[in-house]
């Protein structure tokens, strides 16, 4: 049986290439994980902090809810083109935040019985977990979240410079 040196070199090169490619993919995945972890924590702790400033207290579930909402706000420009009207992005984020707040409330307050908040005394509330009054507060927060996330992605992570269609 004859083994040619060129075959061994080729096999060696293939193995090195595959190992390098795997390492590049792993490094890329780690960078993506770290990026989203930073965005999640930034959004979560900001949401938590706003609630402490507003009500004087909060619950760790709001860090989770806020982090998820912030990531969703940032994904707007991943899901739609830059020429998609900004006000429509804000409404999409608003709807997501209200849904996330409602689901979190149902889990934390109704299912687990932790009674972190109860909006039952406010008009228009849904099961005491969300209400129109707070929905109005989420509109400017949605706009700010989109802009801040885009700025962070641009400056910290080298992504595309943000631009918006205001009409």
From TrEMBL:
Per the UniProt record, one Pfam family is ABC_trans_CmpB
List residues traversing the bilayer.
32-50, 56-75, 95-114, 134-152
Q: Which UniProt keywords apply?
A: Membrane, Transmembrane, Transmembrane helix
Which superkingdom heads the taxonomic lineage of this protein's source?
Bacteria
* UniProt-recorded name of the protein: ABC-transporter type IV
Upper lineage: Bacteria, Bacillati, Bacillota, Clostridia, Lachnospirales
